[in-house]
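The freezer alarm interrupted the setup, so I double-checked each line after restarting. Inputs confirmed:
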Amino acid sequence: MGINWIYPEHEVVRNRDRCINCRVCERQCANEVHEYLSEHDKMVCDDAKCVNCHRCVSLCPTRALKIIPSGNTYRPNSNWTNRTINELYRQADTGGVLLSSMGCPQRYPVYFEKILLNASQVTNPSIDPLREPMESKVSLGARPRDIQRDENGRMINNLPPQISLSMPVMFSAMSYGSISYNAHESLARAAQELGILYNTGEGGLHEDFYEYGANTIVQVASGRFGVHSAYLNSGAAIEIKMGQGAKPGIGGHLPGTKIVGDISRTRMIPEGSDAISPAPHHDIYSIEDLRQLVYSLKTVTGHKKPVIVKIAAVHNVTAIASGIARSGADIIAIDGFRGGSGATPTRIRDNVGIPIELALASVDQRLRDEGIRDNVSIIVGGSIRSSADVVKAVALGADCVYIGTSALMALGCHLCRSCHAGKCNWGIATQEPQLTRRLNPDIGHRRLVNLMNAWRHEIKEMMGGMGINSIESLKGNRSMLRGIGLNEKELEILGIRHAGE
Amino acid sequence: MTTCCGERFLGAGLKTGETLHLSGTPGNAMGAYLDGGEITVQGNVQDAVGDTMNHGTIIVHGSAGDALGYAMRGGEIYVRGSAGYRAGIHMKEYESQKPVLVIGGGAGSFLGEYMAGGLIVVLSMDCADSPAGNFTGTGMHGGKIFIRAQQPLEHLPAQVSQHAATPEDLQEIAAYVTQFAQHFSFDANELLQSQFYVLCPNATNPYHQLYVAN
Ligand code: SF4
Ligand code: SF4
Ligand code: SF4
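Predicted 3D structure, all chains:
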């Protein structure tokens, strides 16, 4: 092996005064960073293998460990940063396309952090959610344009199928295969307990989870893995995946090494064979083709389930959304460029797509301008990190948000961004039995329920402060938002005024 | 027997034991998600026939449009005439389920792209040009494509290897060619005695070496 030019990014610091040589860290680290040298009765480590997942840090009984940036730098250069240099070396070494995971970590503006919420003072009373009723329920689906009556003048129920949720948050698509069985079970059970939905992702639905059907969105992606009529009929809604924020324009690729056992059964492909989702659906080259898939799915499910079309937030997202709103789809899901992924080419993740805040504001406005906003509900994802992000997204026009990364963090994810390696020490993005069993679904689902209950309460509190008592009256209510440190163009796209105005 | 003219989604999700006989020209996505049913068409069919089908049989006594048998996972499709572009894209097999697509005439470009399993047989009857268009088998990583032809196909992508069919190879398709011959009154033996070429993927993991963890 040649010389490795890249100095480790992290340093594993062990406080020798505290370490009791219990070897817990050695057992917990699937990356084999820690090692016990019996002849010296001493723990040693290889920082180069550390991905900074904090598993050992959390489990060390004496808090002897911490992971810090190694601090080694090349000669400082604002143009050639350490990261840029290391990535170049890596490619010169291997000839490979850089592969990363989770959402884009680069310094791009986070517009949610440049938007402030309103509150009532004196003239319009705020509402106390502990004392007064406040509605956090939402219902997603197309709204009929006209009231229809039968010959006796009675109203005809012409409401297309809807999804009803206890709060405007759902768990976004993460396939079985990219995450573990226990992670899926945690999501499914939490969704059921909370009265919201989780999403199978494109890997099919494990037979054990059909019982959570009423809280499941079943996804149909270009690879059509595990898609058959029982699957389509098992969920509360069907999502056609056209794109993903972390990799717009790119398909999926679960390597054959991960297609084992139940994953192979659920995806319905042989063990060891690559699961390749082509970048486009090769039967969809136009909105008309999309319409055909929407209606073929509706036909095979008896027109009883809303169909969601998920796209990545890209430059012409407004025009695409306008097409989707006319395609017969009931719901549009838009995934911003910070959305997570179990594996995505680094360059795509970090350079393609646009922030969800801008995409959402412009899509909502375009659909209103065209008088077709009620044709569809809008779900947004791509880094919703807190209840404040949810409230801001709803006020910008979303009916609901998707959370993926936040949900995984409730399960233990520490954002080490190495899901693609398949050795997640927290038992999430892995299929290795000794790792997956670290995630206990009883605890996992409880933590998800806790997180959502806390958010729900905060959402109500923020709404109450604004004097608003239902999500419906918050939706698209941009007068509740003000920008801070934004230029005129940004304010114009977001459709909000600057703080102080 | 129902006469149709462009109606979409006919027979979508049809289950085992259910049959549909159509004359005229059914519209797009006929037999999508087919789940064991049998559809016979006395005429041509349009695009996306047998999309994501799981089980069952589709017999077309005419020609088929584009995206025939997209992502099919099981069942059999027999087309008497030719198929348009993008036939058999991402076909895949799973345990006992092995999709089979038999095309009597020629196929358009992109035949069997991303193919992950199953069998495609192109019999090239009454086919003046090359029996398959450009980009046949691009991204193929499973399954086999049999082409009845005097010459090997030209311009195949790197993921695809090609060899002249041996008698053992032909055994694999004999039953399906016989079925085809029965459906449309041809002589199976005559067809099977012709020269075939077999297209297989070079590897099951064509993109294995592409990435470096970052
Ligand atoms: S887990 Fe902590 S105490 Fe145990 S060996 Fe590792 S560093 Fe030492
Ligand atoms: S990879 Fe995780 S468990 Fe291993 S040393 Fe680093 S932080 Fe600890
Ligand atoms: S899911 Fe696991 S591997 Fe992926 S970022 Fe989180 S902790 Fe790391």
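Quick read of the result. Chain A has two domains: 10-96, 138-143+158-498.
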